[in-house]
Amino acid sequence: MSERERSTLYELMGGAETVRRIVEAFYPKVQQHPLLAPLFPSNIDPVIEKQYLFLSQFFGGPSLYSDIHGHPMMRGRHMPFPITKERADAWLECMAEALTEVGLPQDLRDFLLDRLKGSAYHFINTPEDE
C-alpha cells in the first residue's frame, strides 16, 4: 500500500489549514444566500467553529467535534430548522463554491461534495411546499 493510499481524506485535502479555509470561504456564501441566511444567527462565529470541528472529524481528522460536544447526532441537531431539498441543494452549492475558492483539485472537490451530499439530504425534514 502506498503512502497516498494510507492517508486520510483529511490529510489529502490539506488538514486543519484547508478545513479552516473551506469553512471561512463557505459561511459568507451561506450568509448571502436568500434560502440559507434566515436559518443562521447574525453572529456566525460559533457556527463557523462548530463546522470546522465537525468537518475535521467528518473527513478523517481528529475527533475535535466529539471531544467537545459529544456524538455529532447531526440529524437531530438540525431538526429545529426547516430543511428542504432546495435548501440542501443551496447548501451544497455554497460548499462547491467554497471548495473551488480554496483551490482544491476538481477530483477532490467532486469526492468531497459526493460525501457531503449524503449528509445534506439526510437532514431534509420539511416538504418543499412549507
Automatic annotation (TrEMBL):
Domain of life: Bacteria
UniProt family annotation: Belongs to the truncated hemoglobin family. Group II subfamily.
A Pfam family this chain is assigned to: Bac_globin
Keywords: Heme, Iron, Metal-binding, Transport
InterPro entries assigned: GlbO/GLB3-like, Globin-like_sf, Globin/Proto, Hemoglobin_trunc
Source organism (scientific name): Paenibacillus ferrarius
Protein name: Globin
GO molecular function terms listed in the Swiss-Prot or TrEMBL record: heme binding; metal ion binding; oxygen binding; oxygen carrier activity
